[in-house]
């Protein structure tokens, strides 16, 4: 599965808008994840997960920054996220099912904040893009 | 499986009261067919599904979407007995329509996204969590009589 030219254009142009709110988007995405899918909290026993916690904010920023890196190198996401891919495969070992859950929560956050931009076509492009990102992050699992 | 708290029920029913079932139905089904094109396999008789605009403007898609969401509206009145409410529809989807229950999960998540688009800030993480419970309950109920 690879992104068409049109899909790449949609992602890159929306990212320019999104990047100004990157930090709060990250925090909101994680809040949505932990509330809708409480089992995902099992990966963060060492975190204070209360809304507004500094750790949540920091981690949310990290996650969205990585999505941004993928968007900025959309022609070679594998190379851009290679280190992160190894981290997830050898250290974090987050079960692959969770990437879908996080992707969904990020989509919902974007839909809520950018309703006019989130057309059916944009929705499809983002779903596919996050699916590609997820594949890259799990490709070294076994 | 899904036990809805008083807060869940309040979040679900109050948001639902603001939903235009026809518009939301068409948009939800349309987006399912655009974002997950393989779901078009069930709709050969619907005419043109050749582009996002063709799909979103297709009158059969809109009509069927409205039908689906109307049914969901019935479920919202019976949150404590989703299995009972959807028993017959479950049999229909298995025996006559041959729909893989995974499609119910996909549709549920598309609905959640559509609600986020139309309700923005009001669709808080807490409200979303209640709705995720709701769509998961519906998906489970619709799959409950598969054999």
Write structural notes for this entry.
- The complex is a heterodimer of chains A (142) and B (147).
- The model of chain A has no long low-confidence stretch (mean pLDDT 96).
- Chain A is mainly α and 142 residues long.
- The two termini of chain A are 19 Å apart.
- In chain A, α1 (5-18) packs across α7, α2 (22-36) packs across α3 and α6 runs antiparallel to α7 (120-138).
- Chain A has one domain (5-138): Globin-like, CATH 1.10.490.10.
- The longest helix of chain A has 19 residues, at 54-72.
- Chain A has helices at 5-18, 22-36, 54-72, 77-80, 82-92, 97-113, 120-138.
- Chain A has seven helices and no strands.
- By secondary structure, chain B is mostly helical.
- Chain B has a single domain (4-141), classed as Globins (Globin-like, Orthogonal Bundle).
- The longest helix of chain B is centred in the C-terminal third of the chain and has 19 residues, at 125-143.
- At the A-B interface, α2, α6 and α7 of A face α2, α3, α7 and α8 of B.
List keywords for this structure.
heterodimer, A: 142 residues, mainly alpha, Globin-like, 70% helix, B: 147 residues, 0% strand, globular, phosphoprotein (chain B)
Task: Give the SSE layout.
The complex is a heterodimer of chains A (142) and B (147).
Chain A lengths: L4 H14 L3 H15 L17 H19 L4 H4 L1 H11 L4 H17 L6 H19 L4
Chain B lengths: L5 H11 L4 H15 L16 H6 L1 H18 L5 H4 L1 H10 L5 H18 L5 H19 L4
How many distinct helices of chain A? 7
Please tell me the overall pLDDT of chain B.
96
Distance between the termini of chain A: 19 Å
Distance between the termini of chain B: 19 Å
Quaternary structure state of the chains depicted = heterodimer
What would you say the CATH architecture of chain A is? Orthogonal Bundle
Give the count of helical stretches of chain B: 8
> Quick one: how many beta strands of chain B?
0
> What percentage of the residues of chain A does DSSP assign to strands (E)?
under 5%
Please give the share of residues in helix of chain B. 55-70%
How does the overall form of chain B come out from the CA principal axes?
globular
- Integer average pLDDT of chain A: 96
CATH topology of chain A: Globin-like
């Amino acid at each position: 599965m690879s992104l068409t030219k049109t899909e790449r254009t949609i992602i890159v142009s929306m990212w320019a808008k999104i990047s100004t709110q990157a930090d709060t988007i990250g925090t909101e995405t994680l809040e949505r994840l932990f509330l809708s899918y409480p089992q995902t909290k099992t990966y963060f026993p060492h975190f204070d997960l209360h809304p507004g916690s500094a750790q949540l904010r920091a981690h949310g920023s990290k996650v969205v920054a990585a999505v941004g890196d993928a968007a900025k190198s959309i022609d070679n996401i594998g190379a851009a996220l290679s280190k992160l891919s190894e981290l997830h495969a050898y250290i974090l070992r987050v079960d692959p099912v969770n990437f879908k859950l996080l992707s969904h929560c990020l989509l919902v956050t974007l839909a809520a904040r950018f309703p006019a931009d989130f057309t059916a076509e944009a929705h499809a492009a983002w779903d596919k893009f996050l699916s590609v990102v997820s594949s890259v992050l799990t490709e070294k699992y076994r | 499986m899904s036990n809805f708290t008083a807060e869940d029920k309040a979040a679900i029913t109050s948001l639902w009261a603001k939903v235009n079932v026809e518009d939301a139905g068409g948009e939800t089904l349309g987006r399912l067919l655009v974002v997950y094109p393989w779901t078009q396999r069930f709709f050969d008789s619907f005419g043109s599904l050749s582009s996002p605009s063709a799909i979103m403007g297709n009158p059969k898609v809109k009509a069927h979407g409205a039908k689906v969401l109307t049914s969901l509206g019935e479920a919202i009145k019976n949150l404590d007995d989703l299995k009972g409410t959807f028993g017959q529809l479950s049999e229909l989807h298995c025996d006559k329509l041959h729909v893989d229950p995974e499609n119910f999960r996909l549709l549920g998540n598309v609905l959640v996204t559509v609600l986020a688009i139309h309700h923005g800030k009001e669709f808080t993480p807490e409200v979303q969590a209640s709705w995720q419970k709701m769509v998961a309950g519906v998906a489970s109920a619709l799959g409950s009589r598969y054999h």
